[in-house]
Automatic annotation (TrEMBL):
One of its GO terms (biological process) is xenobiotic metabolic process. Keywords: Endoplasmic reticulum, Heme, Iron, Membrane, Metal-binding, Microsome, Monooxygenase, Oxidoreductase, Transmembrane, Transmembrane helix. Its cofactor is heme. This is Cytochrome P450 2F3-like. One of its GO terms (molecular function) is arachidonate epoxygenase activity. It comes from Pelusios castaneus (West African mud turtle). Signal peptide: none annotated. The chain crosses the membrane at residues 25-43. It holds the Pfam family p450.
Amino acid sequence: MVEPASLGSSCEGQWRQQIISRMDFSGTIGVLLAICFVCLLYLSSRKKKNWSNLPPGPIPLPILGNMLQVEVKELIKSLRKLSETYGPIYTFYLGSRPCVVLSGYQVLKEALIEKAEEFSGRGDFPAVQMWSNGNGIVYGTGERWRQLRRFAISTLKNFGMGKRSMEERVKEEAQFLVSEFRKTEGKPFDPTFFLSCAGSNIICTLVFGERFEYTDEKFLTLLNLINSNWKLMSSTWGQLLFTFPKIMRHVPGPHRQIYKNYLQLAAFVGERLKMNKETLDPNNPRDFIDCFLIKVQQEKNNPNTHFNDETMSKTTVNLFFAGTETVSSTLRYGLLILLRHPEIEEKLHEEIDRVVGPHRSPCMEDRSRMPYMDAVLHEIQRYADIVPMGVPHTVTRDIKFRGYTLPKDINIIPLLCTAQADPTQFKNPGCFDPSHFLDENGRFKKNDAFMAFSAGAARMESPFNDSSLASTEHSTDQG
């Protein structure tokens, strides 16, 4: 029989042993965490030695970088505010990744235009890269990207980007759009859906060779996928993916839907590719896809070609995804701005009546005779600021820039919005003022600080926006 005293002593010994084991385990975890922290600091210090001549910026925390010093939902606003403290070029850490932020017209011009080749690398954009893998026209790099860009611009121009055939497509879509407006019978309504359909259809006529009815189920599914991805990328989850891509790719959450949506878009494009392949006439290309298929055939014996089915699919999705949102958003802001400025709309009507009249639609040939319309279109794009940050860049080699050393492949964040709000270039940057693009004689004048979508490269969206806005304004005036 076991004595109570010995039983108590035995239990107490076991209890002490468990406590010691737990303390040993906790101590081991603590030591491991301390070692990891020291290693991170060491790696961080090694990187800082290699990047000793980067521009100044806020002091980053290990792992988190500068993310606690900004509002995630207001990242652009926060980055602009930091430029007030650290100047037009400063270093900002997205997690452990250093990025050089550029702001103000002079700095952006010097980097993206005067040193365009050095700043032509594509930076990190995980929401797109996890699907594209560096392929396609938006986030491709190097020679492949240059060849795709040249091909896309040339092909779209041949299909009338800014020419008569494109004008006819825009005019046609404007009539469908205004027809939908008339169905509301003067009652209050939200034009967002109709404008998205119209903007997307303009892209569809170029890329797919046809437009879709606003009730087409597949078309509506595409619009929902695009809208969903834009919302997800601008959400807190999307910002976390942008900041911590390697971690967030393995974390469950709404951001994982971005990849699934891209796959659905690619599946639709795949169906269109199959249809075009089966009916292709190399002597009579109908759309962008046909032109790409012909190029693939021409390059089939070239082992180093960048033109293949995968690149074609991803480039087509890029054009459809990026073009749809920029056009529809610009149209939406344009209508809102004109509603708030009836005096400007009245002057537009006067110019339309004088130059175009009531019996025809405007055409590109009218542009030189409609300086006020041209100025208003540019001011809408400047003021609306649809793409405030632009595509992230990298430098293609180690360079000296404004007294600092920027190492190869470092991420560059160009704040295009700061050029369009630069008080040295626009007298009233915070106001909607078409005179920003008019000279003292009322003639249209260009402004190099106008960077609505990009700088240093051809803007493919602008002709869509200009033609769409002009046609919509004229059609509304007639209706």
